[in-house]
Design a protein that fits this description.
By secondary structure, the protein is of the alpha/beta class. The protein is built from 13 helices and 11 strands.
Length: 329
C-alpha cells in the first residue's frame, strides 16, 4: 500500500508537509499544496483515517440534525453538505430528530457518545431551538446553523426570507392579482415566518387591503397544502392566486386544482418556495423561490471543518414558470 513516505518522496517535501496538505491545514503555499496533491493523485494515496483521528484528536465526522418535514429542503442541504464533506475527507452523519421534548437530547447524547462528531449542522426549526443550542454549548460541540434567528453561539447563515416574501407579492400583484391566499409555515419555523412578513410588506406597498381570511396555516407537507387550498377556495370570494410558503404545500394546491377542475394558471395562479426538484416535474412547472440549498450546505461544512469565516451572502431568486400568470377575467 502507498504510504505517506512515498508521497513525501515523490513530491520532494517533508512528511509533515504532506500531513498538512492532506488535512487541509492553512499556511501551506499554493505551489507546495499542488505538488503534494499531484503526488497523492499519481500514487492513489488514501490517508489512514485512524491515524488522522489520533494525530488530530478529531473524528472527521459531522452530524446533520433535522426535524423539518420538507424532504426537498432537507435533501438539498444534505447534497451540498455531503459533497463538501467528501472533498475535505469527512463523513456526514444524518440524524432525524423529533421536534420538542426531551427525547431529542437523548438522540444527541447517544450520537455524541458513539461518534463524538467534530461539529453539528442544524437547519430550521432546530436552528432556532434555544435549548438544543444550549446543550451543544454544554457538550462543547461546534455548531453551524442555517437561517437561525435566535441568539446562539456558532456559525449562522442568515437568509433573506422577508425580501423573498415581498418578491412573491410583487410578482403576483404585477399580474393583476388582488385577492391572494397564502399558506403560512408552521409556527416553529421562525425564519420562514419572515416570508409572510415580506408578503404583507408587498401588499401594503401596493395598497392592497389585507384580508386575514386569506392567511391559512400550513404544515410544510403535501397534505397540508391540499387542506389549506380547500379552505381558501371554499371562501365566499376565493383568491385568484395562492402563495404556499414551501413547494410541498404548493404541489398540494396544484393537485387540488386539477381534482376540482381549475386550470392553472388560467383560473388560479400558484407560487411555491424552495425550488425543489419536484417544482420542475409538476404540471404546470411551478413558479417558486430558489434557495441555493446545495451552496448553503457546502458553506456550513466549510465553517465546521476549517473554522468560521464571515458568513456568505446568499441570494434568493424568483423562478417564473407556468404556474403563475395574469388574474382571470
Amino acid at each position: 500500500m502507498t504510504s505517506i513516505h512515498d508521497v513525501a518522496a515523490l513530491a520532494k517535501v517533508s512528511i509533515k508537509t504532506v500531513s498538512r496538505v492532506v488535512n487541509d491545514a492553512p499556511n501551506v503555499s499554493a505551489e507546495l499544496r499542488e505538488r503534494v496533491q499531484a503526488a497523492v493523485r499519481e500514487l492513489g494515496y488514501r490517508p489512514n483515517q485512524s491515524a488522522r483521528r489520533l494525530a488530530g484528536g478529531r473524528s472527521f465526522m459531522i452530524a446533520y440534525l433535522y426535524s423539518n418535514p420538507a424532504p426537498g429542503y432537507i435533501s438539498g442541504i444534505q447534497s451540498g453538505a455531503a459533497a463538501r464533506c467528501r472533498e475535505l475527507g469527512y463523513h456526514l452523519v444524518v440524524e432525524p430528530i423529533s421536534p420538542g421534548g426531551e427525547e431529542r437530547f437523548d438522540v444527541l447524547d447517544r450520537l455524541v457518545a458513539a461518534l463524538r462528531p467534530d461539529g453539528v449542522l442544524l437547519v430550521p426549526p432546530l436552528s432556532d431551538d434555544a435549548a438544543m443550542l444550549a446543550r451543544l454549548a454544554e457538550l462543547r460541540l461546534p455548531c453551524a446553523r442555517i437561517a437561525g434567528s435566535v441568539v446562539g453561539a456558532g456559525f449562522n447563515i442568515h437568509t433573506p426570507e422577508r425580501a423573498a416574501g415581498r418578491m412573491v407579492a410583487d410578482h403576483l400583484i404585477a399580474h393583476g392579482h388582488r385577492r391572494i391566499g397564502i399558506i403560512t409555515p408552521p409556527a416553529k419555523h421562525r425564519s420562514a415566518l419572515r416570508r409572510v412578513e415580506g408578503f404583507r410588506d408587498g401588499l401594503a406597498a401596493a395598497a392592497v387591503p389585507i384580508d386575514e381570511s386569506l392567511f391559512v396555516d400550513g404544515g410544510f407537507t403535501f397534505a397540508s397544502g391540499i387542506a389549506a387550498g380547500e379552505a381558501l377556495l371554499a371562501l365566499p370570494e376565493p383568491p385568484s392566486a395562492i402563495f404556499a410558503t414551501n413547494d410541498d404545500m404548493a404541489l398540494g394546491v396544484l393537485t387540488l386544482a386539477h381534482q376540482i377542475g381549475l386550470r392553472v394558471p388560467e383560473d388560479l395562479s400558484v407560487v411555491g418556495f424552495d425550488d425543489t426538484p419536484a417544482s420542475l416535474t409538476s404540471w404546470p412547472p411551478l413558479t417558486t423561490v430558489r434557495q441555493p440549498l446545495e451552496d448553503m450546505g457546502r458553506a456550513v461544512i466549510d465553517a465546521l471543518a476549517n473554522g468560521p469565516d464571515d458568513a456568505p451572502e446568499f441570494l434568493f431568486t424568483l423562478m417564473e414558470r407556468a404556474s403563475s400568470g395574469p388574474k382571470p377575467g
